[in-house]
C-alpha cells in the first residue's frame, strides 16, 4: 500500500476532495487511498488572478476545490483555453496550453495546475517586456508525473 504523508503548519489550510480543512497545530496527515488535494500555498485567490494564465489557473483550481460545479468550470476552461491558444505566440506557452488541455481531458487537473505554474513566469516576462526564461531552466521545465494521491 502506498501512503502519502503531508505535514502542515499550525493554521494552514488544505483542500481535500472539495472540503477545506484548517489544522490548529503542526500536524502530519497520511492519505491511505486516492485523494485530490491542494495545499494552501498553491491556491490562487480570485483577486490575484490578474493575468490570462492566472485566470486559467483559477478556473482549473475550481475543478478541484468545488467538485459540485466542476462541469461548469470545465466549460469555462475550454472557452478560456481556446481564446488563449489564439492570443499567445510563445511556443512554450502554446505547448503548455495544449498539454494542460490534454491533462484536463484526462481528468488530471492537479497535474494541469503544476504545468500551468511553470508557464506563469514566462507570461510575466512577456508582459514586462523582459527576456523570456529559458525552458531548460529547471524552475520552468515540464513537470514529471505528479502523484495525485496515495493508492491502496
From TrEMBL:
Repressor recorded as keyword: yes
Domain of life from the UniProt record: Bacteria
Top-level taxonomy: Bacteria, Pseudomonadati, Pseudomonadota, Alphaproteobacteria, Hyphomicrobiales
Task performed by this protein: Has a post-transcriptional repressor function in flagellum biogenesis. Associates with the 5'-UTR of fljK mRNA and promotes its degradation.
Record key words, sorted: Bacterial flagellum biogenesis, Cell projection, Cilium, Flagellum, Repressor, RNA-binding
UniProt-listed NCBIfam families: PRK00794.1-1 (NF001995)
Family: Belongs to the FlbT family.
Protein name (Swiss-Prot/TrEMBL): Probable flagellum biosynthesis repressor protein FlbT
Listed GO biological process terms: bacterial-type flagellum organization; mRNA catabolic process; negative regulation of bacterial-type flagellum assembly
GO terms assigned for molecular function: mRNA 5'-UTR binding
Database matches in InterPro entries: Flagellum_FlbT
Amino acid at each position: 500500500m502506498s501512503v502519502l504523508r503531508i505535514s502542515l503548519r499550525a493554521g494552514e489550510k488544505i483542500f481535500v476532495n472539495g472540503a477545506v480543512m484548517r489544522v490548529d497545530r503542526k500536524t502530519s496527515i497520511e492519505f491511505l487511498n486516492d485523494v485530490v488535494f491542494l495545499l494552501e500555498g498553491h491556491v490562487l485567490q480570485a483577486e490575484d488572478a490578474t493575468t490570462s494564465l492566472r485566470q486559467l489557473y483559477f478556473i482549473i483550481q475550481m475543478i478541484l476545490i468545488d467538485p459540485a460545479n466542476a462541469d461548469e468550470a470545465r466549460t469555462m476552461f475550454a472557452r478560456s483555453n481556446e481564446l488563449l491558444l489564439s492570443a499567445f505566440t510563445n511556443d512554450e506557452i502554446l505547448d503548455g496550453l495544449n498539454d494542460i488541455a490534454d491533462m484536463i481531458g484526462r481528468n488530471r487537473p492537479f497535474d494541469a495546475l503544476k504545468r500551468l505554474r511553470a508557464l506563469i513566469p514566462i507570461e510575466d516576462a512577456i508582459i514586462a517586456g523582459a527576456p523570456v526564461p529559458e525552458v531548460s531552466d529547471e524552475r520552468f521545465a515540464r513537470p514529471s508525473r505528479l502523484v495525485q494521491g496515495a493508492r491502496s
